[in-house]
Amino acid sequence: MAQWIARGKAVLLPALMKFGAGGLALLSVMDASSIPVPMDLVLAGYVWGHRSYFWVYVLAASAGSALGGLVPYALGRAGGEIFLLRRMDRARFEKIRLRFEKQEFFAVLVPSMLPPPTPWKAFVFAAGVFEMRVLPFVLAVFCGRMVRWLLLSALVLRFGPGAVGLLGGAIHRHGWAVAGVLLLVLVAFGAWAGMRMQRRKMDQAG
Hints:
- This protein has helices at about 1-15, 20-35, 40-50, 55-70, 70-85, 90-100, 105-115, 120-130, 135-160, 165-205.
- The protein starts with a helix and ends with a helix.
- α7 (about 105-115) crosses α10 (about 165-205) and α9 crosses α10.
- Residues about 1-10 have low confidence and may be disordered.
- The chain is an all-alpha fold.
- The protein has ten helices and no strands.
């Protein structure tokens, strides 16, 4: 089975990479949903080859990962509770549920920022088991991947494709700090958007 997967990847990766950002998005969907793909290396090659379009590649890969992640998420939601209860007692299960419900956005956001060998699909599966809402789930994955791959792109543009290794160490050391900064940015953006909507309503009322 592993040989068939390896052969399939050897054919699919070069073929999809010819389709630019669309091919990258499909590779990201495949990586998040089923077959692992070395996305950091693939994205680094895209960015280094077409530097001025790095942001397009980051958006495409992040969107693909968010969509592909819906597959393990759906599996967790469909029958994951039984799967987990076979591997842990009810008390531990409920403890994990409470922790996840209190910080569900960060529980998906932070792993989405971290490079391998982070067991990302396990967190995504758990998001489905504990019935995280779809929109926050997709947003958490998208934002986490955006942070990871924007940092990667900045390093690649500065140091070349060999910077992939630098990203792993940097995010593993400062992942929570980066998540905190992102949360502040999201809160600020939400407040700004809310103020704009309020002003529009006032203007329309006046």
